[in-house]
Design brief:
5 helices; single chain; mainly alpha
Length: 140
């Protein structure tokens, strides 16, 4: 979710301290940026495999799992903002980001349902295909 926020820039609800979408905050070295990207990648992989593990062992409620991820992301973002001053929130009208929010929530719910009924490989393929549809929603 943090990747979505940084990629969306002014279209999203938060913007990093850089000058524009995708800009690194001033003073960060390439090593820090690459480290953050690797942390993001491996945490996503860990979350996917953990989700698949719990679904294989009896957890059947993909939408509850989605809700738990959104709550954890919200708490993490609040902590980063309030205690570590990682970013400054930018408030935008709800109606201007409504279609994006709805598309993203549906994207995550359907991805978790896909993970519940498919292998991780099929899940990744469908996720990549679905990302393009979210981009189309943002462009409109």
């Amino acid at each position: 979710m943090s990747v979505m926020a940084s990629l969306m820039g002014s279209k999203g609800t938060t913007v990093s301290k850089g000058t524009g979408p995708g800009d690194a905050p001033k003073g960060d070295s390439t090593l820090v940026i690459v480290g953050c990207m690797m942390l993001n990648f491996w945490s996503a992989v860990l979350i996917i495999w953990t989700n698949k593990f719990v679904m294989l062992h009896g957890f059947r409620w993909a939408s509850i799992l989605t809700w738990m991820h959104f709550v954890a992301s919200w708490v993490g973002l609040e902590l980063c903002h309030r205690f570590f001053n990682v970013f400054e929130p930018k408030y935008v009208p709800t109606m201007s980001v409504g279609p994006l929010v709805c598309a993203f929530i549906a994207f995550v719910i359907f991805n978790n349902l896909s993970l519940q009924y498919n292998t991780v490989g099929v899940y990744q393929l469908l996720k990549v295909r679905g990302t393009r549809k979210n981009v189309l929603v943002v462009k409109k």
